[in-house]
Amino acid sequence: MKIATFDVDAQKGFTSLCPDELPVAGGHEIAAPLNDMARRGTLRLGSKDAHAPNAIWVVDSHAQMLQPLTHANADLTWVSHCVPGTPGFELLDELPAPIDYDFFVWKGVEPDLHPYGACFHDLAGARSTGVIEYLKVASVGAVVVGGLALDFCVKNTALQLRGAGFQVLLYLPACRAISEAGATQAIDQMRAQGIIICEGSGALDSELARLEESDHE
Fold first, then answer.
1. Does the keyword Cell membrane apply (predicted)?
2. Number of neighbouring beta carbons within 10 Å of residue 122
């Protein structure tokens, strides 16, 4: 079985390096696990949030976040984050440059778009970013996912991939969540859809070996 790995939004804007954006506890620690994860695949994919500073969902403070919106493709308020040209837009230093990935996605560029998953530009899942098509043309059977944040963009990307028919594995050492409750809920949602949760490198290797064996039966 051909395996791809996916680094979802592993950007400085989601770490303590950019405290005014969306710092996730431990977010700066995931580069090494992502690089370790990538050694299991033959293709490495990545994504970045790329948001306009004047986006319709931007609010001034963290206290105003997570309020519902009625826009078609922006459902919650957030502080400004991951704006191109700022430090928060950059990937963690230990990761490859976007051009060195096999496939890379920039999402949320338009000021009225705030997607979470990396497979679609819109919340309804109608405007593809090309990820699913690329993986299918490459005959990929399984995708290992990690990144930031587990309870939003990582979860949604994994669910989109699973919905497209891929075997999906979540590598927990390469993920961090905005909240512990959000992480628990996200893991339960993913498990319910058949996504394999791997708590360490040994578990990841065992699950990949099992998938490989079942693919040959």
1. no
2. 14
